[in-house]
Specification:
- This protein has one domain.
- It has a four-stranded mixed beta sheet.
- By secondary structure, the protein is an alpha+beta fold.
- The longest helix is centred in the N-terminal third of the chain and has 17 residues.
- The protein has four helices and four strands.
- Helix content is 40%, strand content 17%.
- The mean pLDDT is 89.
- It starts with a helix and ends in a 6-residue tail after the last helix.
- Bound molecules: zinc ion (2 copies).
- One zinc ion (ZN) binds next to loops.
- One zinc ion binds next to loops.
Length: 82
């Protein structure tokens, strides 16, 4: 991992620790991770994704559109896929 990459990862984690994880999640091989810091939030989509106020990256349903529209600037900062 390069220096810049390590710094970026640190910065993302700090943002999540300070401002909480954004309501943006990624699903990868059954694991649910924060779209910003990559922390694993759960291992079951139905357990963490309630379809209200949360946006699933790459998912284009009405709920995700709504969630995307209501993201705060801080939620979008360094978050992938928003
Ligand atoms: Zn996070
Ligand atoms: Zn959706």
């Amino acid at each position: 991992m390069g220096r810049l990459e390590a710094f970026g990862k640190w910065l993302r984690s700090m943002l999540c620790i300070t401002f909480d994880h954004p309501p943006v999640i990624q699903a990868c091989f059954g694991y649910i991770t924060c779209a910003r810091c990559g922390e694993q939030l759960g291992d079951n989509l139905t357990g963490i994704y309630n379809g209200s106020g949360q946006m699933l990256v790459g998912h284009d349903c009405d709920e995700c559109d709504k969630a995307r529209a209501s993201l705060r600037p801080i939620d979008r900062l360094l978050t992938e896929g928003v």
